[in-house]
Amino acid sequence: MAVPDIIPLAHEPDHRTSTIGRFSGGQFLASVTYAFPDGFTSGDGWEEQKRLFAVLHTFDHHGHRQESDIWCAGTWAEPMKRPHDEQSVVARAEARLAAGLDGLAKRE
Predict the structure, then answer these.
(1) pLDDT single digits (tens) 1-58
(2) Closest CA to 30 of 74, 95, 84
(3) Contact assessment for residue 80 and residue 47, using Cβ atoms and an 8 Å cutoff
(4) How far apart are CA 21 and CA 28, in angstroms?
(5) How would you classify the pairing of strands 65-75 and 26-35?
C-alpha cells in the first residue's frame, strides 16, 4: 500500500493533536512521544530502550511535508530514577518542543 501524499488531521485540544495548527509558512504537527528502536524485544532493561522524542513536522499550506525536527531527549529509565527533576528527560523534551513551536511565525 502506497503512503498517501496528504493525511488530514483534526485538532483535538487536550489530546495527541492539541499541538497542530497553522503558521506563516504553512501547517505544523508537534508532539512529545516515546518509541522503541527497530528490533526491540521486551525484557529486562526495556527502560533503557524506550526513548522520548520531541517532534516537530512542518508542511506547506497544502499539507505537503517540508521538514521534520526529531530530537531524542533521553530514555524512560531517567524519569524512573528522578521523576520530579527539573532537568528530567520529560522537561527537556517539553522545552525543546516549546522552543520549536515558539520559532513558528504567526502560529495559531
Answers:
(1) 787 777 777 777 787 778 899 999 999 999 999 998 888 888 878 888 889 999 999 9
(2) 95
(3) yes
(4) 6
(5) unpaired
Convert the pLDDT of each residue in 73-100 to its tens digit: 998 888 666 666 677 888 889 999 999 9
All three cell numbers of 26 = 504553512
DSSP state of 42: -
Spell out a b/e string for 88-105, using b for 16 or more CB atoms within 10 Å of the CB, else e. Answer: bbbebbeebbeebbeebe
Regarding predicted confidence, which is higher, 106 or 17? Answer: 106
Q: Burial of 30 by CB count in 10 Å (0-12 exposed, 13-18 middle, 19+ buried)? A: buried
pTM of the model: 0.81
Q: Where are the domains of the chain?
A: 20-102
The C-alpha torsion from 11 through 16 and 22 to 23, rounded to 10°, is 160
In angstroms, the CA 83 to CA 88 distance is 7
